[in-house]
Amino acid sequence: MGAVETTRPAAASIPAAAAASVPAVSGALAEWLGRVERREARIGIIGLGYVGLPLALLFSEERFRVTGFDVDPSKVEMLNAGASYIHRIEPEHIRSAQAQGFGATADFAEIAAMDAVLICVPTPLNDHRAPDMSYIVATVESIAPHLRSGQLVVLESTTYPGTTEEIVVPILERSGKTKVLRGGGDPADGVMVAFSPEREDPGNTSVARRDIPKVVGGVDACATAAAAALYGAIFRRVVTVSSPAAAEMTKLLENIYRSVNIALVNELKLLSLRMGIDIWEVIEAASTKPFGFQAFYPGPGLGGHCIPIDPFYLSWKAKEFDFSTRFIELAGEVNEAMPAHVVQSVASALNGHKKPLNGSKVLVLGLAYKRDVDDLRESPALTIIELLQREGAEVSYNDPFFPTVGRGRKYHLDMTSAPLDDLSGYDCVLIVTDHSSYDYADIVERSQLVVDSRNATRGNPSPKIVRC
Question: Which CATH class is domain 4-242?
Answer without folding.
Answer: alpha beta
